[in-house]
Write a structure and sequence with these properties.
Helices cover 39% and strands 21% of the residues. It has 135 residues and is of the alpha/beta class. It binds [cytidine-5'-phosphate] glycerylphosphoric acid ester (C2G).
Length: 135
């Protein structure tokens, strides 16, 4: 069984998230998602709209996702790869070349897939905020 892992916050779930999860799953048989906890998000300088528990529920409802585990820090990925017998780590290519991932090529096949254009959690938040200001 070919096992894939990907990581992220997956806040305000949108088609960019669907696309990466769909393509990640298509690369193997089982997809694990390392979902950023609220505490790790503050380390990443992010404040998600939905708390971890709700972001986890949403991901577990996605047919491409087989398992969701908490992502609590930057350093856990090697342990995750070993513990879950991961073959491939997939991320959107906004992470390609990042030191946060490059070192992992010793432990796992790294695949970066083109991100989905014109959609992001911050774009959604920004546009909603602007609409509110216009009213
Ligand atoms: N993504 C995408 N297209 C978008 C937006 C996001 O393909 N329009 C991908 C990102 O590249 C990432 C995944 O969706 O692979 C989740 O994105 P985020 O929730 O923004 O996660 P991020 O903040 O990138 O956290 O340790 C890694 C971090 O947890 C990744």
């Amino acid at each position: 069984m070919k096992k894939i892992i990907t990581y992220g916050t997956f806040d305000l779930f949108h088609v960019g998230h669907v696309n990466i999860l769909k393509r990640a799953k298509e690369l193997g048989d089982y997809l694990v998602v390392g979902l950023s906890t609220d505490e790790f998000n503050s380390l990443k300088g992010k404040q998600s709209y939905y708390p971890y528990s709700e972001r986890k529920l949403i991901l577990e409802a996605i047919k491409y996702v087989d398992e969701v585990i908490p992502e609590e820090n930057w350093e856990q990925k090697v342990d995750d790869i070993k513990k879950h017998n991961i073959d491939v780590l997939v991320m959107g290519d906004d992470w390609e070349g990042s030191d946060r991932f490059n070192y992992l090529k010793e432990y796992v096949e790294l695949i970066f897939l083109p991100i989905t254009e014109n959609i992001s959690t911050s774009k959604i938040k920004y546009e909603l905020q602007n609409d509110k200001n216009k009213k």
